[in-house]
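Dear all,

This email documents one entry for the complex benchmark we are building for the journal club exercise. For each entry we list the sequence lines for every component of the assembly. Then comes the predicted three-dimensional structure of the complex as a token string, followed by one or two observations. Please use this as the template for your own entries, and keep the labels exactly as they appear.
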Amino acid sequence: MSLQGFSAVVARHFQRPIYFILVLLTTLFTLSLLSAAIQDGGLSTLELVLLILYTILMLWISASFWTAAIGFLVLAFQSRRAEPVAPSPERVSSGRPGTFKTALVMPVYNEDPERVFAGLRAMVDALTETGRLDDFELFILSDTREPDIWLQEELLWRRWSEELGEPARLFYRNRVENIARKSGNLADFCREWGGRYRYMIVLDADSLMSGETLVEMVRRMEADARLALLQVPPVPVNRSSFFARMLQFAGSLYGRLFVAGLAFWQQDTANFWGHNAIIRVRPFADHCGLPRLPGREPFGGDILSHDFVEAALLARAGWRVRLAYDLGGSYEEIPPTLIDYAKRDRRWCQGNLQHARLILARGFKPLSRLHFAMGVMSYAASPLWLLFLIATGVEAYFKSLQQPVYFFGYSVVPIWPESYVVEMTTVLWVTLILLFLPKILALVLLALDRDEAQRFGGLLKASLSVLIESLLSVLLAPVLMLFQSKFVAAILLRTSVGWPAQQRGDHQTGWLEAIGAHGVHTLIAVAVGAVAYMQVPDFFWWFTPVLAGLLLSIPVSIFTSRTSLGQRAKRAGLFLTPSETEEPPVLRRLEERLAEPSLLGELSTDRRAFWTQAMMNPGVYALHDALLHDEPQTRRRRHILEGLVLQLQDEGEDSLSLREKRALLSHREGLYLLHTRLWAASALEKPLPLAKP
Amino acid sequence: MGAGVSDRLDALDAPVPAAWSVTDDRAAVEQRVRRYLNALGVHDPREIEGLTPQVLERVEFRATLGQLGEPLEVAIEETHRLLDRWLVTELGLEAEPDQISSARAAVLGGHLPGWTRRWAGLSEVSLAESMRRVHFQAVPERAPLTMDPNPIQLCCHRLVPRLLARIGRGLGIRRRRA
């Protein structure tokens, strides 16, 4: 074996041990310092609780830190790469075109259809430029329930499929029942059409991938017959609010360190992030059918965060799951405001907590169990931090009753009991280093690569952006901690927290919305601050960063949601990302597609719901009818449908439930009744929507 | 189902719709048929003049049979039926609802220029082949794979009841089953 081969084998076998040893050593080191500092005269129950919480949280923080640190080393020492992705044209053309098809599948559920289709069209444009469009087919797997959006999806499908011409490569189906949500949607695709494709590339409604990346993903799958899933990390793009631009910057700059680090220690047992990944269809069908978990929600029922479980099932069956940290050209859009970000967390939280039941399930690989545990911790960490802070406050209160504590007079510098100052200060510094050093490392990486630094607006501007982002993340962290703690508590107590659907597009937070979402945070800050200041004043000063974040949550939430502020920051060269400074062609194509005249705009007026209006248009009616399946007529069904049409005409659209509206649109009899009765109404609407689909 | 249906009983006592024989009603029906034909894509006055009498004739016939009901409703239904009958004839179909539906979508979607002329009987050129060529292939041919749920054996699932049951059995106490 050559030296290079030997070192590769050693590296492969020692990567994980190195990582886990570093994480454990760091945790043990900080734990020993803290335990030495707090167990003054024996270990009380409260101190024991503090130590346990600190251990869990330090494991979490040091795991994250060492992932980033290793990622830094990987990126710093790997040979000079031209671009994160940019597979060369030679590599792109090295596959065997035409021998099999890859499906681009986009599961959608009540998404903005214009954006969905514009995104897909941008990707098709990008694929056309690679000359490999013929190797791909597109599937829109609609689970949409809203009648308006359902019809709009069909219209847009029809128009675009006409443009694409023959052979048909754009397919659309709306599922009758959205059983098992997104995982059920994908499973349904595999059951119906999976045999047609060797690979499927799973996209989210806001996913975008460059043509080169799509082709390269297929090439990599072809190169490794045991590779079942290749995840390409998506970079956040396209939002313009201050909050979102800050996250985009952080995701672009720090994200690559974390992703490289994850790929280092996860190796062939990486994870599936739900989208922007290519999957070998047959093993997916063989091994990734998800069972319902026994028991009732939140921990029983359908598996909500299916992606982790699917990756674990593939790994369990002996297939490889990898993270392509070196492959760019993969994008996603993120929530525009802090409140939207929290809403997304609410949706994800329940699914991740459900994984707690899978950690010890039989047969999974140890690393898959770790993925489950990390998924749980990504939300459980918040209530644990909260408990830790409460325990610290209580401990400080009891200490204040017994002995002098850490602050005297107006001194803002903590004065520790003589023998423990070094230990406590070290604990504090180590924790801060673990939290903030990855950001510095990301800047060091930029300093090593001037071209890359320019893509982030230059080293100076990037450093300033990091500084501002760090300060704001200190303010935002306690708010997110309370949000997530509330979600976790609500899920455990089986109560609803009543979040409306997530809004994806740019919009801004108003005062009323902010007060509604953050009013409690502000009150908590005032109450806790007052109690702490009066009872344990020295603790109060320690606690000010957390209190400040909560106290300022309303204005911070409002101002960071401002697109004007985001644009101003952009003009000032702050939070710039490579996708902004050198806009990738696929993002540009998306903008162009979105700027095209809207088909739906031609059809809609303000007076009625889109679906009733659309059903008066014979062309739209006939198209929808053609996409339904024929079924035997029954008198009973006809009577029910007639009743619904009468109700619609007499009491208006709002009198029908979503299910009733869908019933009318799901049966040819219902459609016929609806179309003819709307046209036979004594007072016919003027002007009629006569635009062709 | 809402009150809009259950409270319909009152409608049984309402006066019967105006008689078909009233000239105003005939005019209203004719006007509605013309508007509907226009919405279907029939804009040429000659085509409208050719089709409208056919629809009205059928409405008259329904009235003769005492099946008129709501005249406007019947008029729209008959126009729709006239179109479907023409599609069946043009394509030589026999009870193939999916194909009729597809053909209807093809003509109403504006994919076949001049179809209204043919429908109105003003053209001798058959559109059958053109109609068949317009695909509404929303999904490809099925290529099914089996994808059954894979079992996941949870650890400690119902551990306490299972332990109690085992202890019960060990002590010779049988659990009562419902």
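Observations: Residues 71-91 of chain B form the longest helix (21 residues). The two ends of chain B are 37 Å apart (CA to CA).
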